[in-house]
Amino acid sequence: MPSPYRALFAAPGTKAFSAAGFLGRMPLSMMGIGVVTMISQLTGRYGLAGALSATLALSAAAVGPQISRLVDQYGQRRVLRPATLVALVASAGLLCAAYFSWPDWTLFVCAAGIGSVPSLGAMIRARWAALYRGTPQLHTAYSFESVIDEVCFIFGPIISIGLSTAWFPEAGPLLAACFLAVGVFWLTAQRATEPEPHPREHHGGGSALRAPGLQVLVATFVATGAIFGAVDVVTVAFADERGHKAAASVVLALYAAGSCLAGAVFGLLRFSGAAERRWLLGICAMAVSMIPLLLVGNLSLLAVALFVAGLSIAPTMITTMSLIEEHVPRAKLTEGMTWVSTGLAVGVALGSSVAGWVIDTAGARAGYGVPAVSGAVAVVVGFLGYRRLSRPVTGRGGVVEQHSERKERHVA
């Protein structure tokens, strides 16, 4: 591991909370695809499987920011444990409902309950921010977390699908629930690195989403999520049309591997100048990288194109987290990070749905028009909201303090 990453873990407790966060994040990539695999095997109803997966994702998108808002107010331990218990009970209910063929409505109720799963990525990043706020190490920490996210998305679906198909249908979601339980309860047992809660009176009025800069980031990431959701669905259909459906997982793993590699390298670099300019450049790069997908004619070229496209993902995500830290009050940092993840999740649901309709209508190759259009929308939103991102915001400790903090960062 390069020395900047080694230096991250010099602080006591960092290795333990990072490991707990890794385990707790695995269900993010395992549960949805595991539910689809389980239901399709037990019932053969792909429509029901897709609807349950969408219910789970939308429930998490709606409930996640509220849980993170409570975390900012009362602390991670007091909120994450009961929220995780709700998600675990709902997961057990879903497995039982599927195994014993209970009515469909019970499946949907349980899928919605799983949406109370906390955003472990936001919790871990909040711990890094509490340790390294205002130092170059925070950039490296966000880069490391982006790499961990990609590792989860490379191996999580493979593990979940593999277990459910090779062992028994419920195995994938069951292991995801186990990872969640171990990760959350291990993390919340580590009190020394837990960020200090900010009581309600320190929060001001309303949600973190009232911050103009955060609104721009969330809106842009809805379009960005549509890119990810569409690419996943279209790539599976593209491989299926060419008689190599199983190869889709390898091609998509290369997409994530490109992001993982770029994130690791990005964390070694030190930047001067405004973070919002790097962010806008990253959004543009993601959009441009979708254009070659419209031109590829075989899986080999597609794999290369997706690997190159993945190189812009992690740097953009890392810069986004840095901008949240600038534009959201410290008392609402966890909630702010979760709102971006929510925007991404909503975009994934929209992108996969629209891409499926285009594939049915015009074929898989035409489906790559969906991520291309989504990328263009992200660029438009990014340019329209750029001025909001370049302005200091209130609520982090006063406008004067924010001006001085930004000035110090630019000088550094």
Automatic annotation (TrEMBL):
It is found in: Cell membrane. It is a multi-pass membrane protein. InterPro entries: MFS, MFS_dom, MFS_trans_sf. GO terms for cellular component: plasma membrane. The keyword Transmembrane applies. The lineage of its organism: Bacteria, Bacillati, Actinomycetota, Actinomycetes, Kitasatosporales. The chain crosses the membrane at residues 20-40, 46-67, 79-100, 106-126, 214-238, 250-271, 278-295, 301-324, 336-359, 365-386. Keywords: Membrane, Transmembrane, Transmembrane helix. It comes from the Bacteria. Residues 213-412 form the Major facilitator superfamily (MFS) profile domain. It holds the Pfam family MFS_1. GO terms for molecular function: transmembrane transporter activity. It comes from Streptomyces shenzhenensis. This is MFS transporter. The keyword Transmembrane helix applies. Gene3D superfamilies: MFS general substrate transporter like domains.
